[in-house]
Write a structure and sequence with these properties.
Largest sheet: 3 strands, antiparallel
Structural class: mainly alpha
Number of helices: 21
Shape: globular
Strand content: under 5%
Number of strands: 3
Helix content: 40-55%
Radius of gyration: 28 Å
Strand order of the largest sheet: 1-3-2
Distance between the termini: 31 Å
Mean pLDDT: 86
């Protein structure tokens, strides 16, 4: 099994796959609505691609999720695709009276089918604040007319008054009499399918829209099962564990905002120690190892900010990704360990992980040997030219020719010159049809792959 030039998995059963799997199904006009079923076709593209390309490593429940969506009637598929385009339904609930789509003629039937398949819940039990919060301020005043001060304050003020004097069950009952709400129940499965299709969890169905509007253009690449991002279930499981670890770091070091829930310090320190233990051993897979190092760097940076230099050094010491060694040098200098700084600096200069790291190591030695030159401020007047033109005029004032151009031009020329090895079939480099370049383009070991080795490189 391989991938067509349009980005779809090839197989003997190709005929049942949606057209948008192989190429843009339509060129959208921002002044006009998309054709009927457009969003459903995009959703089916994701579902079919994952079932075809990763069906062998999905669990029965994960596979059943995709099969249920594929088996839906067209009206239900269209409604589900429109629902999934709304962030509120993935994170909470939406009002049923807000569902009004031209390509969903049988709304009640589509809702009933989605509910019977277990894809949505209608009027589920949820926190009273989330349910009442679906109402506008004027609707709150109408539904909860008997709450004191109904005409005063903002929507938030009124919501707080309602919740203070009414039990949650009563709040939901009153709202349900006024309007129904629904919630998508399969977010975990949807996130997994998005991860497998796009290779990372941040993209969603809007990626298709941006492509079909012509905002983004993508090179057609050959994708094959042999080069997919997750060759087996173990790799996928390890990736998901690293994603969970990254989320845990963000939870353990929340932004300091009012009313932010701060974890218990004893539990927090135990969780941090457990995280370091889980991330301690390097991984053989390049993608997984890079993500492991990213999580370690994030954890180390947060520990460094809190003054836990021993913990930060431990995290940076187990990371093989910049700027781990830079941060270690800064901490060692702060602790007065000049010998440690010089030893690490020499190691960086001897075998840098990146050009910027080597540049930092050279500059870091000079900054402590001499005082920085004074900064002179100059006010430029008398010219309507932009700062780029003024800088160019200054640089060429004593001769020479110069041009001002943006970074896209040299990068584009570079890509055209070395197109063959930029788009070489390296395992894990291309995992979907929506990539502007290989996943590892900016990784230090980009040229380590034998497929990219040539006389040019």
């Amino acid at each position: 099994m391989s991938i067509s030039q349009g980005g779809g998995w090839e197989s003997e059963e190709r005929s049942h796959l949606p057209q948008s799997l192989f190429a843009p199904s339509v060129r959208l006009d921002p002044r006009r609505p998309p054709p009927a079923g457009y969003y459903a076709d995009n959703l089916l593209t994701v579902i079919e691609t994952v079932l075809e390309g990763y069906g062998d490593i999905l669990t029965d429940e994960e596979r059943d999720f995709g099969l249920r969506i594929r088996a839906l009637a067209p009206q239900a598929q269209r409604l589900l695709a429109r629902l999934l385009g709304r962030v509120s339904v993935r994170d909470g609930a939406i009002r049923e009276d807000s569902l009004d789509y031209a390509d969903v003629a049988d709304l009640s039937g589509a809702l009933a089918e989605l509910a019977s398949c277990g894809l949505i819940e209608r009027c589920p039990t949820m926190p009273a604040g989330a349910v009442v919060g679906l109402l506008t301020r004027l609707e709150m005043q109408r539904v909860f007319w008997d709450v004191d001060g109904a005409r005063k304050g903002t929507k938030t003020d009124h919501l707080e008054r309602i919740l203070a004097v009414n039990p949650p069950v009563f709040c939901r009952w009153r709202v349900r009499r006024f309007v129904g709400w629904l919630r998508f129940t399969q977010s975990a499965f949807l996130d997994l399918y998005r991860l497998l299709f796009f290779g990372e969890g941040s993209n969603d169905l809007t990626t298709f829209v941006l492509r079909d509007l012509g905002v983004h253009r993508y090179e057609r690449v050959n994708l094959a099962r042999e080069t997919r991002a997750f060759p087996d279930r173990e790799t996928l499981g390890m990736f998901l564990d690293l994603v969970a670890a990254d989320d845990e770091v963000r939870t353990l070091f929340p932004m300091r905002v009012p009313d932010c829930e701060v974890p218990d310090e004893t539990d927090r320190q135990t969780a941090i120690a457990d995280l370091v233990r889980r991330l301690w051993v390097p991984l053989d897979n390049r993608m997984l190892e890079r993500r492991r190092c990213r999580v370690l760097n994030r954890l180390g940076r947060n520990l460094e900010r809190e003054g836990d230099f021993d913990g930060a050094l431990a995290c940076y010491g187990r990371s093989a990704l910049v700027p781990a060694r830079e941060r270690r040098m800064r901490i060692l200098h702060r602790l007065g360990d000049g010998e440690g700084v010089e030893s690490l600096r020499a190691a960086v200069l001897d075998s840098p992980w990146a050009a910027l790291e080597a540049d930092f190591a050279r500059r870091f030695a000079r900054r402590f040997r001499r005082r920085a030159a004074p900064v002179e401020d100059r006010v430029i007047t008398g010219s309507a030219a932009g700062i780029e033109a003024q800088a160019l005029a200054h640089l060429t004032s004593e001769g020479g020719v110069g041009w001002h151009l943006e970074n896209h031009l040299p990068m584009g020329v570079f890509a055209l010159a070395y197109w063959s090895w930029l788009f070489a079939p390296v395992e894990g480099a291309f995992v979907n049809a929506f990539q502007t370049g290989p996943v590892d383009l900016y990784w230090p070991d980009f040229f380590n792959a034998p497929e990219r080795i040539s006389e040019e490189t």
